[in-house]
């Protein structure tokens, strides 16, 4: 009798262990299923928020296009006093907000303007290549490095595969790199591609790229009415050696705050530019203007914990119609990190 009782107790102990083991296994499975379910819920919510942010961004883009079409009068002059140029506009949304800025993409040095530049007869760099060199030097870059980068930029974008300058390089240089590639010998799509050009170091890119742009045009035309004091080196480079950076800043600061310059003739008539030769004045007519055709919308949509950034390049035609040239999603917004707003 004692042995039978002991056997039953042993069996009951084993059965209890089995039950506890099954319960532990079921608990683990339940926790895992619940965890996966919550992950799927979060994923679905994130996708919904992203879609909402995407369509809100499209709406901001449409608003920017409308604003540009309504901002300009019959004279077609573009200035920073017009509605499109209001900075850091905020639009409240259900569960978040949209922030947006529109920038003039002709208030910068368009590197694609070097595409059709022809070499000079005496072997020196063309005027616009020298202007790019001066712009790079203005950001405390060594003169030799600046000349190398300017020449390499010209060779990278020009329409042939021949080396046309002493410091220029073509496909053979890029094919020998750890990640081989060739020069596009044509327009680049975004100024970030400038980083791939021979001689463009991280330091040079970070210092100079804010003054550069890459719009889909083979013309370098800068709107003098939308330049800010920070853009003075662009004006100085184009007018080198006839204008210092301090003089350029003075010109910009004393510009009519509302109407700007009505035309290039009124700009050239400024006393500080009285020393320009007729040849220099004729060249300026090609590279300066008071109108703009390209703008960029930079908007960021925030919905709860979801953020979406859209950068859209907009083109305004002769009839005043604004169309989208390209869109770029993602990336970090160029904001002051100390700004808590």
Automatic annotation (TrEMBL):
Gene: gspK
Protein name per the record: Type II secretion system protein K
Origin: domain of life: Bacteria
This protein's record includes keyword Cell membrane: yes
Database matches in InterPro entries: GspK (IPR005628), GspK_central_sf (IPR038072), Pilin-like (IPR045584), T2SSK_SAM-like_1st (IPR049031), T2SSK_SAM-like_2nd (IPR049179)
Family annotation (Gene3D superfamilies): EpsJ-like (1.10.40.60), GSPII I/J protein-like (3.30.1300.30)
Residue stretches making up the T2SS protein K second SAM-like domain: 222-290
Recorded family membership: Belongs to the GSP K family.
Predominant location: membrane
Keywords linked to the UniProt accession: Cell inner membrane, Cell membrane, Membrane, Protein transport, Transmembrane, Transmembrane helix, Transport
NCBIfam families linked: T2SS_GspK
Entry annotated with the keyword Endoplasmic reticulum: no
Annotated compartments: Cell inner membrane
Stretches assigned to the T2SS protein K first SAM-like domain: 107-216
């Amino acid at each position: 009798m004692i042995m039978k009782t002991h056997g039953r107790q042993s069996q009951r102990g084993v059965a209890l262990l089995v039950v506890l083991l099954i319960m532990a296994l079921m608990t683990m499975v339940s926790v895992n299923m619940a965890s996966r379910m919550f992950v799927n819920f979060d994923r679905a919510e994130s996708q919904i928020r992203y879609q909402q942010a995407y369509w809100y961004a499209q709406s901001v883009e449409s608003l920017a296009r409308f604003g540009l079409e309504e901002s300009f009068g019959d004279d077609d002059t573009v200035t920073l006093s017009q509605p499109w140029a209001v900075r850091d506009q905020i639009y409240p949304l259900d569960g978040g907000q949209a922030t947006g800025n529109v920038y003039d993409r002709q208030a910068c040095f368009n590197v694609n303007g070097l595409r059709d530049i022809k070499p000079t007869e005496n072997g020196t760099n063309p005027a616009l290549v020298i202007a790019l060199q001066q712009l790079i030097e203005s950001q405390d870059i060594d003169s030799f490095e600046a000349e190398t980068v300017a020449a390499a930029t010209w060779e990278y974008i020009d329409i042939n595969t021949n080396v046309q300058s002493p410091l220029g390089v073509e496909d053979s240089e890029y094919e020998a790199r750890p990640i081989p590639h060739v020069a596009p010998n044509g327009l680049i799509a975004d100024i970030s591609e400038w980083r791939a050009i021979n001689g463009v170091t991280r330091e040079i890119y970070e210092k100079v790229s804010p003054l550069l742009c890459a719009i889909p045009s083979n013309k370098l035309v800068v709107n003098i009415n939308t330049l800010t004091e920070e853009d003075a080196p662009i004006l100085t480079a184009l007018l080198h050696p006839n204008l210092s950076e301090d003089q350029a800043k003075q010109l910009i600061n004393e510009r009519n705050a509302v109407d700007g310059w009505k035309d290039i003739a009124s700009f050239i008539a400024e006393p500080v530019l009285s020393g320009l030769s007729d040849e220099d004045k004729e060249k300026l007519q090609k590279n300066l203007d008071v109108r703009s055709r390209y703008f960029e919308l930079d908007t960021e949509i925030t919905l709860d914990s979801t953020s979406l950034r859209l950068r859209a390049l907009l083109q305004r035609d002769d009839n005043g119609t604004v169309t989208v040239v390209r869109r770029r999603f993602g990336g970090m917004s160029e904001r002051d990190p100390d700004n808590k707003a």
